[in-house]
Each structure stands twice: as C-alpha cells, then as structure tokens.
Give the backbone structure.
Amino acid sequence: MEWKEKKGAGLLHSWSNEEITTRMSKQGFRIAGNEWEYFDPPRHFDLPAVFATSFRKPIDRALSQFRFECIEDRGCIIKDVHKWWEKRVDLWNVYTLTFADPPRGARNHFEGIEHSEQRREMMATAIDTLSKFHIVLSMEWLAYAAPQVRSILGFNDVSALTTRVRPHINQAKRDDRQEHNSLGSASIKKASWDPKEYLDAAQYKKMSEDLALDEILTEVARRMFLERLVCNDLGGGVAI
C-alpha cells in the first residue's frame, strides 16, 4: 500500500495517529508494522491498539541479516562480514534506539564514559516502553508463546509459532530439512549460522560490543516473556 509519497506501513513515526487509524480503516487493515522507524512512546500508545513485539539474540539477528541480504544476494554485494558491519551502523543497538526513540545523534553516545548518563536514559526509556507492550516474545522460545498469543492476540491457530517462515525463499532455497522447529529459532541450528563459529574472535568481540545495549534490552525482554508466562495475568501493556 502507498501512504502519500512513501510506501509500506513500516514507517509509522512519519504519520500522525489520525493518519494511521484513518488509513487502516479505509483500506481494511488490522495490523500495522513499524519496521523501519522508531516507536514513538508518547504518541503511539494513544493508538487504539494491541502492542506486540519480538526479540532475537542481537548478534544472531545481525549475522542472519548479513546472510539473507549479502550471501544470498538480496540487494547486497558485500560478501565480507567485516566490511558489511562497518557500513551497517544503522543496526548497532537498533532495538534500544527503536524503543527509546532518542534525539538525532544518539549513536554518538554508544561509547565513552562521558556518555554513560545518555546511555542510562536510553535504556531506561526503552525498558519503560517495552513494559507497556501487551505481548513481548522471544524468537528462541516461540513454542512457549501459545498461551499469550491466544489470549492477547486472539489467534486460535498457533501452529505458525513452530513453522519456519522464510521470505523470498525461492531466491535462495535452503535444503536443511528444518521446516518445523520445536522451540523457535533455538531449534533450527542446522539452518542457522552460529556467530561463534562463523565469525573470528575479533569480529565476534566487536559486534558484541557494538550491540551491548541491545544485548541488555534483549535479556530484559526475555525476562518479561518468562514472567508473563508463569503469571496469571499473561500480558502487560497499556490499557486497551
């Protein structure tokens, strides 16, 4: 779908709440994805919506994106992960930036003791935002998510949680015989690249450090998922 001069619903920061709700109503959409821009906590939580998100271990996610885009030739021509990572600074701590929605230039605060207060503020905002989401999933533990998906999102058929979904698979088929997974991304090891095996020690250290804030936020998200899993009140979030 086309929204004004831009395409796709993955740019919700660019549209007012009224534009979002009006466009979805007119075109009959029930789900809006904010894939390409940061979440705007003060404004987006005013939308009449159920808020859902998922996390995957940051370095696993980054390496998967390199494989998907570059190794399997989906718009990327860089085959060296070292060179690719230096160019993809937009992926450094992208989870934290997405949920904190900091001012422009926040990436300059990722390093240095002089920026420790800014990092604390970003992390505090990101955690506060995440705590208001109605459902927070872990990609490694999707098989355990069925109760929350049923009760909060209203899906009766949750078989998709343990079925691999691979966009554009015909462009680069993988014969790994792992169409079904028993847990989530944690159970498709033969199909996934292990960062510790694929990356040399120096690159693994660099990427881990560049994703340090996201590693922390991911652990918080995983803790939220587990706590909600065992609580009678399965979800968190703002009032619907």
User: Anything to note?
Assistant: The chain is about 40% helix and 5% strand. Strands lie at 2-3, 6-7, 52-55, 135-138. The longest strand covers residues 52-55.
